[in-house]
Amino acid sequence: MNDNSSCGGWTRLAAIVPSPNVILEPDMIALLPSGVTAHFARVGLETALTEELLEQMADELMHESRKLALLSPAALGYGCTSGSYFQEGDFDERMVRRMMEASGGIPATTATTAALAALRELGVWQIAFISPYEQAMHIRGIDYFSRRGFAVRGDACLGLMEEEAIGQVTTETISELVQRADSPRVEAIFISCTGLPSLAALPTLVAEQNKPVLTSNLTFTWHLLHLAGVLDTLTARSLLTAQWQ
Fold first, then answer.
1. CA torsion angle for 198, 203, 205, 206 (degrees, to 10)?
2. Which CATH topology does 10-113+218-232 take?
3. Cα–Cα distance between 48 and 245 in angstroms, integer?
4. How far is CA 179 from CA 8, 88, 123, 172, 229, in A?
C-alpha cells in the first residue's frame, strides 16, 4: 500500500463507529489539531448494547478495516469501549491484530487499548470507573482494568443499554456520577463509552475534582494521533492533561 496518509499536507485518521453513535465523530473532530482529518465507517444494525450487537460489530470489523485502508490513513481505531472488552481475555488485543491484518499493517487501536495507554502515559494506577452501562457490562469494564493492573477505587453507572438514551445524558448527571465515584485514593477518573457526551463536561469536572479526568473519546483520539506520529511526547501528554493542569 502506498503511504499517502499525509498526502497534500493532511494526515488522515480512520475510525470504526457503532451505527447509532452520534457523539464520537464530533468529539474527534473537535480534538484534532490543524492538518489532521478524520474518516469514519459504521458497524452494527441495532441500538441496544447487547452482547449480540457487540458480537455483530466485532464480526464486521475486518471488512470495514479493509474499506478504510483504501484511504491510506496513518492510524485506524475501533471506537466502541464496551465492544472492546465485553469478551474476557485479550479480546481488545485480538481486535487490534485483526484490524492491522485487514488493513495491511496500518497502526491500530481500540477504545480500551487507548484508555490503557493514556492512563499509563500519565502514570496513574488508582482510578474511578464511570459508565452509562447496565450493571453487568459496567462490572466487566471494572474487571478489564483490574486485570491489567489498575486498582478501581470507585465506580458509578447509569444502567442504560440504548445508545439514544446514552447520547442524551446531561452534563449534570455525569458530574453526579463522578462525584459519587471519586475519593482521595483515586488518582484519575475514566469516563467510559464513546457514545456518552462527556467531553464538554471536562472543564467543570476537572475544576471540581482537581485531578485527571479522561473520556473514551479523548483517549481514543489521543492514541490515534500518537500512533500516527502527529504528536511529539510533550504535545501528546499535554492533550491529556490540558483539561486539568
1. 130
2. Rossmann fold (3.40.50)
3. 37
4. 46, 29, 22, 11, 35
- The pLDDT score that the predictor gives to residue 2 is 37
Nearest Cα to Cα of residue 62 among 75, 78, 46: 78
Angle at 34 between CA 169 and CA 8, to 5 degrees: 130
| CATH for the stretch 122-215 | 3.40.50.1860
**pLDDT, tens digit (0-9, with 9 covering 90-100), for 104-159:** 999 999 999 999 999 999 999 999 999 999 999 999 999 999 999 999 999 999 99
Q: What is the pTM of this model?
A: 0.91
pLDDT at 198 exceeding the cut of 50: yes
- Distance from the Cα of residue 91 to its chain's centroid: 15
Cβ–Cβ < 8 Å for 78, 86: no
Which residues sit opposite 127 in a β-bridge?
Answer: 152, 188
Q: Where are the domains of the chain?
A: 10-113+218-232, 122-215
- Which long-range contacts does 141-147 make (Cβ < 8 Å, 24+ apart)? 141/81, 141/82, 141/85, 141/192, 144/85, 144/112, 145/116, 145/190
More confident residue, 244 or 144: 144
- The residues pairing with 133 across neighbouring beta strands, listed in sequence order, are 160
Collapsing DSSP to helix, strand or coil, 79 comes out as coil
Give, as one character, the DSSP assignment of residue 33: P
How far is it, in rounded angstroms, from Cα 112 to Cα 116?
6
